[in-house]
Predict the 3D structure of the following.
Amino acid sequence: MNYKVTKVIGIVCGEHSGDSLGADLIREMKLRNPNVQFIGIGGPKMIKEGLILTNQMSTLSVMGFVKVIKRLPKIYSLYKHIFNVFIKEKIDLFIGIDAPDFNLRLEKKLKKNNIKTIHYVSPTIWIWRPNRIYSIMEACDAVLCIFPNEPVLYKQHGFPAYYVGHPLAKNAPLINNKKELKLGSDSNIQKYKKVITMFPGSREEELSLIGSVMIDSAIDIYEAIKENLDDDLLIIIHAIDKPSKKKLEEKLQNLPQYYKYKNYIKALEGNSKDYINASDFVIAKSGTIAFEASLMKRPLVVVYKTHVLNYFIITTLKKLGILKFIEPFFASIINYLAGGYYVIPELVQNEVNKDNLVKYTVELFNNKSEIEKQINTCTEIHNELLNNMQDKTDIIEKYINS
């Protein structure tokens, strides 16, 4: 389908995980219409696909109440700036990728200015804050959902929502036994028969709260597993970029007797999917990376920890009934999709310490029947995620021309 004039789509993404979603969306739209133009906020993958960048996404990439409050003036300034950019550029459509606290406000204001708005990645109203559905419906014209159980929640209110599939589910093979070692310059990783990779996350707070515990536990995990293992073992602490790698390496070098283990416990930087593929076992912070590891059928332990003040605020609001959660609370999305039981072992907040992480990791690593059960359940969920998907480019074209 060809447009008579170039269409301009405004887009805002505030997370590394959203950057991949945005890049796929831009690429697929440009395949259908090379004249469509994307302008807004995104990451390197979106820029590579043709996004005209107005602002860096780092301002939006914060987690928890404390960090957000500290950065509120910058966030508000960005909100006003990007709104004015979109009005000046006379965008034909806006797509907000995740980042609901920022994007829903922006969508609402743009909608009032007669600009069609689509929210891509529904907030998880089926897990917590279900009443958000009303503010979502007020802010946008449609929602693109990445989980198949979400559209029905909107359709109960007569609101258009579409299951467009989860890109991680689309890109991961249903059976993933092959260990592909595509780790660039770290080619000597292939000499290790068993590889455990830890994914602490990309944010500064995650590296501090989760990365520190992972690193503190690394030597004990190595010793406990190596004791019953004939193969060579490597533990990787994954870094999203060079600055993160430097911080992780500094933490590693502070470990007592680290010099004895430096060939077996390393901080390495690179594409997370390559590292999951190269791994026999994964320890990951809660979120996209944990979900990706489960879809790639790697035995997995999930870790969730936030700033103590954030956790206090969340639990207090929950007790007061201001924040509503679907019980029981899980840190892993797989445990919700599995019907609400612990398929994936997880450590949450105060449970996140060296002793627990060593215990959970070693117990699962040595338990073949539990690993088999985990992988079978993840395969079933993966199959469900591949059914009944709609083409997001069809939906976007519908709204951009309406």
Summary: The longest strand covers residues 233-239. The chain has a mean pLDDT of 87. The CA atoms of residues 212 and 314 lie 23 Å apart.
